[in-house]
Amino acid sequence: xxxxxxxxxxxxxxxxxxxxxxxxxxxxxxxxxxxxxxxxxxxxxxxxxxxxxxxxxxxxxxxxxxxxxxxxxxxxxxxxxxxxxxxxxxxxxxxxxxxxxxxxxxxxxxxxxxxxxxxxxxxxxxxxxxxxxxxxxxxxxxxxxxxxxxxxxxxxxxxxxxxxxxxxxxxxxxxxxxxxxxxxxxxxxxxxxxxxxxxxxxxxxxxxxxxxxxxxxxxxxxxxxxxxxxxxxxxxxxxxxxxxxxxxxxxxxxxxxxxxxxxxxxxxxxxxxxxxxxxxxxxxxxxxxxxxxxxxxxxxxxxxxxxxxxxxxxxxxxxxxxxxxxxxxxxxxxxxxxxxxxxxxxxxxxxxxxxxxxxxxxxxxxxxxxxxxxxxxxxxxxxxxxxxxxxxxxxxxxxxxxxxxxxxxxxxxxxxxxxxxxxxxxxxxxxxxxxxxxxxxxxxxxxxxxxxxxxxxxxxxxxxxxxxxxxxxxxxxxxxxxxxxxxxxxxxxxxxxxxxxxxxxxxxxxxxxxxxxxxxxxxxxxxxxxxxxxxxxxxxxxxxxxxxxxxxxxxxxxxxxxxxxxxxxxxxxxxxxxxxxxxxxxxxxxxxxxxxxxxxxxxxxxxxxxxxxxxxxxxxxxxxxxxxxxxxxxxxxxxxxxxxxxxxxxxxxxxxxxxxxxxxxxxxxxxxxxxxxxxxxxxxxxxxxxxxxxxxxxxxxxxxxxxxxxxxxxxxxxxxxxxxxxxxxxxxxxxx
Amino acid sequence: xxxxxxxxxxxxxxxxxxxxxxxxxxxxxxxxxxxxxxxxxxxxxxxxxxxxxxxxxxxxxxxxxxxxxxxxxxxxxxxxxxxxxxxxxxxxxxxxxxxxxxxxxxxxxxxxxxxxxxxxxxxxxxxxxxxxxxxxxxxxxxxxxxxxxxxxxxxxxxxxxxxxxxxxxxxxxxxxxxxxxxxxxxxxxxxxxxxxxxxxxxxxxxxxxxxxxxxxxxxxxxxxxxxxxxxxxxxxxxxxxxxxxxxxxxxxxxxxxxxxxxxxxxxxxxxxxxxxxxxxxxxxxxxxxxxxxxxxxxxxxxxxxxx
Lengths: 736, 307
Description:
- Chain A is an alpha/beta fold.
- Chain A has four domains: 8-106, Single Sheet (N-terminal domain of TfIIb), CATH 2.20.25; 116-175 and 366-543, Rossmann fold; 179-359, 3-Layer(aba) Sandwich (Dimethylsulfoxide Reductase, domain 2), CATH 3.40.228; 570-701, Barwin-like endoglucanases, CATH 2.40.40.
- Chain A contains 25 helices and 26 strands.
- In chain A, helix 9 packs antiparallel against helix 11 (296-303).
- Chain B starts with a helix and ends with a strand.
- In chain B, strands 8-1-10-9 form a four-stranded mixed sheet. A two-stranded antiparallel ribbon of chain B has the order 2-3. A two-stranded antiparallel ribbon of chain B has the order 4-5.
- Chain B is α+β, with helices and mostly antiparallel strands and 307 residues long.
- Helix content of chain B is 24%, strand content 16%.
- Chain B folds into two domains: 3-78 and 119-297, Alpha-Beta Plaits (2-Layer Sandwich), CATH 3.30.70; 85-116, no CATH class.
- Chain B has helices at 3-8, 10-13, 50-59, 65-70, 91-97, 100-105, 127-131, 157-161, 208-220, 233-237, 254-261, and strands at residues 36-41, 79-85, 108-118, 137-139, 145-147, 168-169, 201-202, 243-247, 283-284, 296-299, 301-303.
- Chain B contains eleven helices and eleven strands.
């Protein structure tokens, strides 16, 4: 708020105390009394502030990598609510619970507000000087950057900075990433991230792809799913079958949920190809050859899915074309994960779905802005370098490897070996705590950025550049956006090139205006008009480049899943919750208090055990159990859960932080810490589901805090509450 | 309002039975009558909780933390209930033994789970209204069951009498509690409505702050409320569009069309279609037989059983 000549006493006379309270809290400051700051009267407001009227600004959601387009409601200079942007081809005006909680990431009470060098608060000048000093003694190869997925102009600046340093050591790490999916899609469909057309399919068979929960672009898929389920659709109402050892949110919404033996998904896929061939479907030669040994009897024995069920699945896929078969993390998280996914992709090819419900997507016409996506293999590579003492300066940004690396990597120890560690962080999380220098980041509601979503909705070659713009002024004067920090660092290295840009906003504006024609602004003679249109929409639609590589005619050689170790008889399936995700949102209280959809548990982690297995082990709900793998032990509460394979147990990722903030710290147990270091053979990706555990009861028991009542989800002898009806008992064709 | 006024106009502040002709006496205050109603398609609902979080954001709902949640003090105006398929065999045996562990072993998970978004049903003959000793909960002219916070004395009779258990009591002054709104989280609070004080009851209002604005705008422009004028926060967030909301008395509204297509009549406790089991319709209201005449119609979840 700007200075003005308004006398404080007159101001109070005009407004009364109520108005003042709003104005003061609007600034987030309390130093009005001593004259250090000024407030602007409502009688003389800025153009965009109309007291009591909400103003809406478009921007981009940063809560997950789906990059939904959002609209923020701003009242008296404060953003108070986020909605979906109705013009978006990704989310069409909708949001998920995670997106709603974006304001809690912004107003979080545990944000880092000032640069900290070795725990001492310093100024930005001192912080940047410290970096400059450390970089002076390091060669390019001795400087590493670890980031989450990056795209847009932040990525372009980061690339420029790495080039200026002469460093090629950029590691892009996502704790939960579709890396296997990308690799297999490229091989089998010729495109890493095709458009999945659930809305066009008459049947969807999903091998553990939780597309309604946490997989790739859930809000987009949820809307496709709603269309897929409509009875008055030309294709008729679609049928969903979910095959996975642990029921996900998508599994909970399936017409048939099938608990498969963990790791045998590829076998079932090949068995289905075989069965389809036998049923008279024209299966391409390579697929038929790959599947010829997978008879229904053999597949049934190896997967635990009944022969009858396999027959019904084959009938479903034969009768309902086009169909869509999806492979998600539940099928991919094994040492033979890529092979599983390839077998599943082969099933899609055999069914003729490629081109029908799996469409080639377009990539952005600006390759320098394209998303640079991450995986776990990058972390392993960085970890090896750190262990060898290779790096003098390490930057981390938007990622928390000290928390999310499996304990077997000993990442925290290796990270400590780096000469000088700089963390760009919004919270003082585990990684920031271990860093020498912490640079406080703006929230997504304060920063300027652009981004290109990896998964793009829409039709044909549509793609877009999404704009992130501040929805309000900074809450804290000393936070900076990633772009601002990179620009400041670039000014140290290449002052001639970058000193003309006062801040990242100036850089972004000039970069976009320089490409005005290519960005669809050819008709706009005036830069300001183009710029204002861009900001008001926050979406720049673009004609993408369709490039498709030739799919390989690979017939996957399936290796058998690893046999269970007698001392660790249960398979641990870490689950990715739609709200907490990989743990980065654990400090947003709405998400902690939002019950897990399936167990309805809040504020803690849990281990899901099948009722039969629990009876065998003598475990009842609420027993505190030790979950022990080869790599470690964690303790949590047992939840008896019917939606899981009896030989598997499941725990949610993202809990058990030892730092980060008041809501995250100490809530639940950290599953990453007991994951074994087993990798997918083809991609080197961490095989999330390859950890085997044993469960042992302790002498403690708690009452689980959950939404579910004492009847445990039973409606026995109760009135009509949540009613389910068989599809042949209703006529959906005339519904509104 | 004075107590004498309250007593004199007692019948006005009590609900009137929708079957009696006195219902909604004040509707003529608007260009045309309004009756807010909702329909929720359980087939489209995936149980994702987006509606619930959106409600926290819109309506200043406090986060209570683990301990208070354990005491049943969560303030979620909109909650998602999760049910499992019932075991096909020997239900009586389980029930008599009340052995839920045994029931859990036999839940039918072949068709996943069932989800039910539960919120205030804005009953036309609301059981909560008749028991309030001070008239703090009563019926509005646009057909909502309203809660007047500063009249509420916290007897909690309304909550006890609510068959849906959707009324939430402020056991604490939440701004003073550690979890709710520590600085600067309080800056997110929606200034269009209050933060309720300790000792009062609260519940879903069908986003009254939004309907009020829409209603006033329509009145200013001298026209009917249209569907696009107002969305509740839960409806706006819902990724599958499972929630419809609007004026049931406007035959052009989606809600009115849905209710009529499903042959669900607001003022009947037993629908005509109930007499014909093969009606192929899936609209129903929860606990209709208790005669609260709820304003939310649910559409049954549809599942293919042959796969």
